[in-house]
Design goal:
alpha/beta, globular, Rossmann fold, about 15% strand, about 220 residues
């Protein structure tokens, strides 16, 4: 049976690299994103994953259409700068919505499906700012929202133990993308990590060797 995987945020720079990696490995790739461009082989849907009801409806239909689905890489998110004095409640809520709710609503809906079919694997994407206060000091709302994904992964792993359900976390440093190069033109891009390297790391989690790992946190930092 061909393996199926859901990739949210598949139309982004990282999402496209992850989608193409899994396509080359023979997966049926189901994606959410804003455009089909460059992803003609991905079964794409455009939607707002921060809308809980819409997310539930979409995923329930998806599971009916693809009952073998047992993997989800959740890449939807956003970034906002701001130190502690400048971080407002609205900034906190926006980062919570973009980085946490978009992952939580997917996990919450897919969890019963994974449990019923005997297992499944979630991959969440955190940030160095979720661990390191120095890294979070200039993007407080972003760092706090990403730290919730670390906590969510821990809860999933406790719940999923003996159910075949696990959650891994990928923690990239600065990702080498055109927008980041434009925003930081004087940086040493060779020290950043590429979307392709992150995609390889994510795919490793689904190999026979990667399948032996539990409570996994992979820091894909390169030299940044």
């Amino acid at each position: 049976m061909q393996k199926s995987i859901l990739i949210t945020g598949a139309s982004g720079n990282l999402g496209q690299a992850v989608a193409h990696k899994f396509l080359t490995e023979g997966y049926t790739v189901l994606g959410t994103g804003h455009t089909q461009a460059g992803l003609e082989k991905v079964k794409m849907t455009s939607m707002d994953l921060s809308d809980e009801q819409a997310t539930q409806t979409y995923l329930n239909e998806l599971c009916q259409q693809h009952p073998a689905l047992n993997a989800a890489v959740l890449l939807v998110g956003g970034y906002a700068p701001g130190n502690l004095p400048n971080t407002t409640g609205s900034m906190l809520r926006e980062m919570y919505k973009l980085n946490f709710e978009t992952a939580y609503f997917v996990v919450h809906t897919l969890l019963p499906h994974f449990e019923a079919r005997g297992g499944g694997h979630f991959v969440l994407v955190a940030s160095r700012a979720a661990f390191d206060a120095k890294a979070a000091q200039f993007n407080v709302a972003y760092g706090l929202s990403k730290s919730l994904l670390i906590a969510l992964a821990e809860v999933i792993n406790v719940y999923g133990k003996d159910k075949g359900i696990r959650c891994s976390v990928i923690v990239p440093s600065t990702i080498d993308t055109p927008p980041n190069r434009k925003d930081m033109p004087n940086a040493d891009f060779s020290k950043w990590t590429t979307p392709e390297a992150i995609a390889e790391a994510i795919h490793f989690l689904f190999t026979d060797a990667g399948g032996q790992l539990r409570e996994t946190v992979l820091k894909v930092y390169n030299e940044a």
